[in-house]
Amino acid sequence: VIVSVEIPAFKGEWLQRCIDSVLYQSSPNWRLSLLWDGGDDSSRRVLEKLQKRNHPKVTVHFGPNRGIAKSRRFLSEHSQGDYILPVDDDDVLPFHAVERLLSVAEQKPWAALIRGQRRFIDQEGRLLDTRPWFPFEPRHYQHGMVTDLWNHCQPYLIRRSAYDRTTGWEGFEDMRQAGEDCDVYLKLEEMGSIELVDEVLYYYRVSPRQASVALTKAAGFEMWRRLADKTIERIGLPLRRVSENPPFVYERAERPPSKLEAIDFVFLADGDSARDAAAGSLRAMLIHHGFPGDAVHVVAERNVTALNDALLRTRRPLVCIVDDTIQGASAEELEVLVSSFDEHDLDLAAPIVRTADGSSVAPDASFTHRVRASLASRTGWEAADGAAKTTREPWLHDHFMLLRREVVRAVGGLDDGFRELPVATVDFCLRAVERDFRLAYLSTDGYTAPGWPAIEPTPPDLSRLHAKWGARPEIWDRERVELPKPEPARK
Amino acid sequence: MSPRLSRYRIYSFAGRLLFKARQARLALPFLERAVELNPQLGPLHTRRARALMALGRWEEAALGFQAAVVLDPEAMHAWTGLATALANLSRWDEAAIVCERASVLGSRQQVYRPPEPRPAS
Asked: What's the pLDDT score for residue B33?
């Protein structure tokens, strides 16, 4: 496993120190790529000298000035390595930075980006006792980094496989190509999780020549505003900026009422035999009611990759993931579900599904305490008056789920590191909760699953789920909120 | 041995002589040249780093010791030098990690013990 350390070189004053801090890392698993970006003579001399050394792990490129984003893009395109570690030409890495970041990356294979702490140093390399202007804090989640852009900084280790799925480094032309770091953060968050390492793994040099001095504070705010607005538009997040001046405030935007025609249906089947047997299923009903063919997607294999592929094919604002064996649904019942979904202003919802013995399928309460992923059928899901309850929950089952497409975009689909769908769905829901999307079980009754399979998750899946979420009770142990009973459905 | 490699000895020798004579400023160019000629030899980095430390150039000294410990992880003097340089830069987090690694190394290495006192005759 190799880390590609990438340095666009413009200033020569501290470049040698920066290079030495990479050359003499405690871990040997690195490659260094440098691009002379048309900078000062001293930086060119340092790079020419380095090139003459013919170090087997070092590649030096020379080119005209193109700006930071384009230089980073060039380096990432011309380097190899499983991870990318961007470094600035005047900063230094602690001697164990690569070793530590790689060890965290190995422990957290789901992370698209791993972020550590940084400290400021002066021109002589002495630690400065100043308050960092980019804090290192738990994330202030409101649909991810969009409203949390100020809470980011170097160092960050990027997983190459996640980077390759983004559009890469991009900056603002009118800001000297800056903003590329925030932009790539936002894009990577759509590909996987961002993990924090609470250790100092980077020294940021404060000097009059640092790039952020040239780029004013006002320009920084403007950059964040543009990036957040761009991301809200790209994903289709239900957010609206309500302030023109920093600090920018966003509030949840109202959505137009949903319609049945705005749903893409993804059916989970188990091969052709299951599809043939599903004559009384929801799919049969849809076909009977003349739903357009392109609104129905069938996943022949019940696995994460196949479901992700199907989700990518969806185009409508809502997606309904349904087990092909779910029965008893009619167009009217679907309308009730959609209407209830809108009334509670939800992003993901599942109806109460009854099993053959009449009990309902609900999240296993023990999950929150022991991080188990069994979503078994159970009784007692009804309220005292016998009516089914509608409650906010941290996760839903994988047999019937209605969700907005922006949820899929924002969290990048299901994590294909899981083998089985139930656990992957729990993880998907938790990622949605982390990004402030709203989940609930809706009390719309009328759906049955005759053969509810009692799936016991495999140990590797459980270990992964535990490793990923075990330390995040603020996400999975939220107080369950009982929602008011929905109004009668529109007919 | 190639002439390039043998030349480093001369530069290193000159640098050491000057450093011992408390002429760190004069010693440094010789030690730097020695490192340039044979960058894979850990002790050369240590000598250069010591000269830098004597001149109060702590950051470069730290990087020099860092090079020395990477090239020769058993070099206890380089580890202690690295910890000293980092402490002078107030980089305590890193210095603590270095000290921890040095102590692990120290426990592995043979430690000098004074001879047992002779029993009184």
From this structure: 95
Contacts of A145 (CB under 8 A, 6+ apart): A139, A152, A182, A185, A186, A189, A194, A231
Residue that is written with structure tokens 């009384």 in the block: A280
**Could you tell me the two tokens for A311?**
């989700």
Q: What is the ipTM of this complex?
A: 0.83
What does the block give as tokens for A380?
Answer: 């007692």
Residue A111 pairs with which residues in a beta bridge? A193
pTM: 0.86
The residues of A whose Cβ lies within 8 A of any Cβ of B are 17, 20-21, 23-26, 53, 92, 94-96, 119, 121, 124-127, 129, 199-200, 203
What is the pLDDT averaged over residues A330-341? 84
How confident is the model over A262-300, as pLDDT tens digits? Answer: 999 998 877 554 445 454 566 777 777 777 778 888 888
Q: Reading across the β-sheet that carries A58-63, which strands appear in turn?
A: A58-63, A30-37, A3-9, A83-86, A156-159, A111-121, A193-205
Name the burial class of residue B77, with classes exposed (0-12), middle (13-18) and buried (19+) by CB atoms within 10 angstroms of its CB. middle
User: Which residues of chain B neighbour A199 with C-beta distances below 8 Å?
Assistant: 93
Of the two residues A179 and A209, the one the predictor is more confident about is: A179
Query: Which of A24, A96, A129 is the closest to B63 by Cβ?
Result: A24
Taking the C-alpha atoms of residue A363 and residue A402, their distance in angstroms, rounded to an integer, is: 16
Tokens of B22: 């408390």
A177 residue type, one letter: Q
| Interface check B91 vs A, CB under 8 A | yes
- A92 vs B59: CB contact, 8 Å cut-off? yes
The pLDDT tens digits for B39-66 are 999 999 999 999 999 999 999 999 999 9
Pick among B94, B101, B104 to test the A interface (most A CBs inside 10 A): B94
